[in-house]
Amino acid sequence: MEIGIGLPNTVPGVNRAGIVDWARRAEDAGFSSLGTIGRLTYSNYEELISLAAAAAVTERIRLTTDILLAPLHANTALLAKQTATLDHLSGGRLVLGMAVGGREDDYTASGLDFRERGRVFDTQLEQLTRHWAGETGVGPAPFFGSRPQVLIGGGGARAIQRAVRYGDGLTIGGAPPEAIAEALPALTTAWQDAGREGKPRLVALSYYALGPNAQQQARDDLGHYYGFLGEYAEMIIDGAAKDADTVRAYVEGFTAAGADELILFPTAADPAQVDLLAEALPQLRG
Fold first, then answer.
1. Dist CA 131 CA 25 (whole Å)
2. CB 151 within 8 A of CB 144
3. What's the CA gap between 202 and 174, in Å, rounded?
4. N or C: fewer beta carbons within 10 Å in the chain?
5. Separation CA 89–CA 48 (nearest Å)
6. Which residues make Cβ contacts (< 8 Å) with residue 193, sequence separation at least 6?
7. E strands of the chain, at which residues?
8. Residue 19 maps to which CATH number?
């Protein structure tokens, strides 16, 4: 299983160092991907712009939106152009994780109907496929041909249907290894039934905080970001890995569950967190 690291684009107080310096360190450390989290009504760095900045200072590491809230990008042709441009400029490193999201305030701020987001997303996936394939005159073409790598957020039946028809697999955030193990057989069966070649990718997301202030970092960041969930936010805070042993246990658990990649998202914006995570994972270089 590959191990990626999130950019702290949603961590309060993030600045240039938390994107540019962080990206350089992550690539040097051997992480497989840089991930971003998408929100609108929050004081975070926008994910495509953050990944463009990271792309400019790296050469090999993948650039993964985990996830981009596609229906908020109402101009689908422009979204196709933006993502194809990033994919082309980065040499084909974009992995476009997309879903609909669950925060109504993001849609209200956009003047969009929250209740229609699933239907809009289905239409977008079809349109994006056509734009990237060169059927509409919207360019450039993605670096490796017909589209960037696409992952659909979620592990339910609808997400699997979308992944099989339009994507390369699933990304499942905030779920334990057991959820990955449960989704994998259904995804694989649907993939084979549709006559898709190869095997689908399955990416997991988890949080970490390392160092002497790990507990407080997790509480400050995740408590703020997920505060709208009430008591459930406490479960997310408690679930963040806060020491090297727990990080390694998470890696072992998701590996055993069959995930292809685990992206560990930080709860602090200090680029030293990249080094702390790398030190906890000697297999990065091995």
1. 34
2. no
3. 14
4. C
5. 12
6. none
7. 2-6, 33-36, 62-69, 94-99, 149-153, 169-173, 201-208, 261-266
8. 3.20.20.30
- Calpha distance 28→23 (Å, rounded): 9
CB 223 within 8 A of CB 279: no
Chain position carrying tokens 């193990």 = 181
* CA distances in angstroms from 168 to 29, 75, 161, 196, 200, listed in the order given: 26, 23, 11, 10, 5
Q: Is the dihedral of CA 10, 16, 17, 21 positive or negative?
A: positive
How distant is the alpha carbon of residue 45 from its chain centre? 14
3 state DSSP class of 202? strand
Number of structural domains in the chain:
1
- This model's pTM is above 0.85: yes
| Local mean pLDDT, 10-residue blocks, the chain (286 residues) | 97 96 98 97 96 98 97 98 98 98 95 97 98 96 93 96 97 90 95 96 97 94 90 91 96 97 97 97 77
Residues 88 and 136: beta-carbon distance below 8 Å? no
At residue 286, the pLDDT reads 47
Structure tokens at 57: 């200072």
Domain that residue 110 falls in: 2-284
Torsion of CA 43, 44, 46, 52, to 10 degrees: 140
